[in-house]
Amino acid sequence: MARACTVCTSPSRSEIDAAIVEGRVPKSGLARKHGLSVDALERHAKSHLPIALLKAADAEEATSAGNLLERVRAAEVHARSLARQAQEEGDLRAAVAGLKVVLDALALLDRVAERLAEKRETEPRTLAEFFARIADGGNLDVS
Predict the structure, then answer these.
(1) Is the pLDDT of residue 123 over 70?
(2) Is 49 exposed, middle or buried (0-12, 13-18, 19+ CB in 10 A)?
(3) How far is CA 53 from the centre of its chain?
(4) Cβ-based neighbours of 101, under 8 Å, separated by 6 or more
(5) What are the residue boundaries of the structural domains of the chain, listed by start?
(6) How far apart are CA 90 and CA 139, in angstroms?
(7) Closest CA to 97 of 109, 83, 107
(8) pTM greater than the 0.85 cutoff
């Protein structure tokens, strides 16, 4: 008879799953903290980690990044409006300052776009590749 997964039966399963998905803690430290073996964590990550949790982590990250990008874009639109208003009123110093803010916002958006492109190149393309990374040390940080 197959033995029950010690991670699945742990009262801290949600916390353990989240730590595995986020890759924030080395598996050895995670195992020690929860009284588990590294092998148990690896088996769990390969066989039992819910796909829904992986999708939730990606969705949360995407939502957070999307909100930040919306705020940067809104600031850029507002800065353009203020610069236009200052120019119409003949306040060239304020207009130039507003354009500087617009350029800074565009530079930030460009850096974010570059970072997203780099991340797409380095993130796992398949679920099998994702789990292989977990098995190879659990670090999923692609930054």
Answers:
(1) no
(2) buried
(3) 14
(4) 75, 76, 79, 82, 83
(5) 1-49, 52-122
(6) 55
(7) 83
(8) no
Going 20 to 24 to 25 to 30, the CA torsion angle's sign is negative
* pLDDT tens digits along 6-24: 988 999 988 888 788 777 7
Q: State how far the Cα of 139 lies from the Cα of 27, in Å rounded to an integer.
A: 9
pLDDT of res. 79? 81
Q: Using an 8 Å Cβ cutoff, are 75 and 105 in contact?
A: yes
Retrieve residue 85's tokens: 């208003």
Helices (H), the chain: 13-22, 27-34, 38-47, 51-88, 92-122, 127-135
Helices 38-47 and 27-34: angle between axes, nearest 10 degrees: 110
Residue 134 near residue 127, CB atoms below 8 Å: no
Which residue type, as a one-letter code, is found at position 129? E
**How crowded is the C-beta side of 114, counted as CA atoms within 13 Å?**
6
Q: How far apart are CA 130 and CA 140, in angstroms?
A: 8
Angle between helices 92-122 and 51-88 (to 10 degrees): 160
Alpha-carbon span 78 to 56, nearest angstrom: 33
